[in-house]
Task: structure prediction
Amino acid sequence: MSIVTRRRLLAGAALLAAASAQAQTVAVAPQPPEATTGNDDRGEIVVTGSRIARPDYAAPNPVVSLGAEELRRSGTTNVTSFLQRVPALTNSLDSTRTAGRNQADGALGQVGLNLLDLRGLGPNRTLVLVNGRRHVAGQPDTAAVDINAIPTDLIERVDVLTGAASAVYGADGVSGVVNFVLRRDFDGIAARAQAGISERGDAGNRFASLIAGRNFADGRGNLTLAYEYNADDPLANDDRDYLALAQRQYFVNLDGYDPTRAGSYKIGPVTDLRYPYGSNQGYVVIGDQVFRGDGAIYTPGRFLQNDGYSIGGDDTPVAGYVGDILPRTERHAVNALAHFDVSDAFKLSVEGKFVQSEVTSFSGYGGNYPATIALDNPFIPLSILTAARAAGLTSVDISRNNFDIPRRGERDRRRTWRGVVDLAGRISDHASYDLSYTYGRTDVRATKLNDRLNTQFLNALDAVRDAGGAIVCRSADARAAGCIPVNTFGGNTVDGRSFGYYLSNPVSNARIEQHVANASLTGDFGQFFALPGGPVAFAVGGEYRRESSRFRPAQALIDNAFYQYDEYIIPTPSDGSFDVREAFGEVNAPLLKEVPFAHLLSVGAAGRLSDYSTIGSTRAWQFNGIYAPIAAISVRGSYGRSVRAPNIGEIFRPQTGTSNFFSDPCYVANRSLGTSFRADNCRTLIAAAGGDFANFTAANNPDATIFIPGTQEGNRNLRPEVATTWTAGVVLRPDFVPGLSIAVDWYDIELRDAINTPDANTIAQLCVDQPTLDNAYCRSISRRTGTGFINGFTVQPQNVAAFRTAGAELNVTYRFSTARIGDFDLRLVGGYLDRLEQVATPGAVTEDNVDQPFRPRYTLAFSPTWNSGALTLSYNLRWQNGVRRFSRIDTDSNPSLVDPRYLRYKELWSHDVQAQVAVNDDFSFYGGVNNLGDQRPDIGFETNVPISPVGRYVYAGARLRYGGR
Result:
């Protein structure tokens, strides 16, 4: 942490201390950060991370809980963006990371997904629950839940748990659990409406919700209905001038680098970055002449000798290819919740919901690489025609990036159905039962936008003059079908009327289904015996779960009906399913209670046996304990083993196409990166392929600027991942400061046999960074005979990786009232990431991911709220240290890699404010500004580090409540 940062934080703390010292405080009941989910008849609660009811101060696992009011005061209606302020969830994927160019070629059904990533170990290792139960996935072939499917205004609070959760909830929670607790027993009518827009007049948001509930039968029953609407406008890259071509800066390998010369750096920022050998105006080579599409002599950019880019000239600008930063989103959610207590022994509850979200995002433009045009095409400029005839050609090849044909994109519609039936009741004063069935289904309709049909586009390119001198498509059949000629010679020359003939929107479909049946018995042994601290509590039960996923790509995609690279990856229909039968148990033994030196001492254990149809049996367990010598101090800890079973895609995915853009680790410019083995391994590889080691550069690679096709497939021989987790912490609730609660916890997670599918670039790097070339990664990369350049690859998940993460979290709440100046609610959540390491394969170099983008070492969120009468003022500070632009392995191996000024991104300093006025008990209105300081993302290829480019954002809303409370 820099000196400036420390001074800012210390100054804020001093101001807070001064304000507290001057106020005349009146104690209010402390509300600690540990989470609760529901009351039992003894006033105890069921905490997230356990099925046993106990007082909240007796919870052994660290939980950060954020309530509905905090969500509303944030001003955001995107729950994932709100949760990114929690240190454990900074790497979560919100809409800025699943739109535009973030979609890989061949990907389907992933646009606009909002996925939580707990502890930076990946969304597939984060278990998302709703009211303590599993939720159906939103992404085909995975268990990842789309947070868009969870209604914003029905959320009562969100609990974020770190610990060995598999023993309680089953597989997938190796990094922990995020539990969304929804409102129940709502009586009356509540409505909220909010609208917001950026200071620049874009990225607008509209939100509305309506909740109506009614208690009946003297409070034994309740019916609640809720509807919610949310719409977000898109934000394109070029909507921000600092991201557009004229101002955008990128980091590339610089020319003239000399490591022996002081002040010479290998990588640095440049402007006007472009893709060589192509242009949005056309690129034509005839002999030794290079023409622009309009017939002028082509002005090439300055080619970067150590990179695959150029600067300036007529080459295609990189900035123009980014597309959307935020997608267009529209979401409707309908929820119904009901319960009726016939008696204490028979309580029936049901939940049902339907959510539809439609997300649209556009990425890059299509192109012709190249298109072959016959010389009788009347669009060919005279200079090009003359040169072609002089060279004895009958046609010319023109490469062009088509900025005048609509961007390619995708529109994904997700429909989620979920229903829960639960029957619960008390058997005796010491035992209760719970029986439940949950069904979930997500239907995904993925529509690719603006793909060019091959036959039709070729017909449109093939233009001639008819007998009357008009330019028409050559084919009479094509003309009859509506073909209008396409002119690619020059910029902005394509007739927009031609789009309807050759542009197509192929539709693919997927369905994900989930069935969960659960039976449990909870209680205590108080009727038989009791320990000095009370009766031993228990929970036992069993669960059956079936998950399935199927994918049906559009027939046109299977038939490879599209032009060149628009949809060159051929998808494969897929089906997969598994079921699992589980038995679980949990016990908590309160050894001592309210005796000298032991206000509370309890120990607990949990275990789960699972039998999967795919991988066989697994075991998960946890031991935990809590010791409070006095009521004001509690020490807690846990140690356990969690498992993650491979998901459907990792096992069942059929062999299908994929692609990747390579920066070959064996390029001359890249040999100094990576390990000490790289250069010698590259020499051996290139020599074996017959290539030129000394001149092995991007400039000499004809495929340097295109995506290389490859294959990916599942692996039916995968084993479960196994994680060992321990936590230790202390909770302070000092009597001399009523309303103050401070929790500090350390966590350590070690994951073995981790399933890893490294991307193709990583595979190529791992191949040459190992001690020898005799490794699985080299067998997954193919190189062209004669040159040695990469021309293919295969990716497949394997149990080869290991992860280790550790760190600390601070959670402080302080609530107090004053006689004169109102009530204060102060909240501070801080995080320290001590380690986040990945070993991609046994023996490989350890990758240190601490301080990489979205995984900062230090995070802090400070949220004070002040209320006096009808006025409530809220403030939120979100701070993160500046993360690294370059990996440690690269900077450690080359001290002159980059100017120290650019080693890190800027720190995140985001300030949000809100004011709310309560007109009366039933109506209030509010308004606020997010990112008050208008912080911008830092320079580079990323567009959202350390913050999104939305900028200063203004919103206003109103809340109405009528009826019961």
Observations:
- The mean pLDDT is 91.
- Residues 6 and 311 are 40 Å apart (CA to CA).
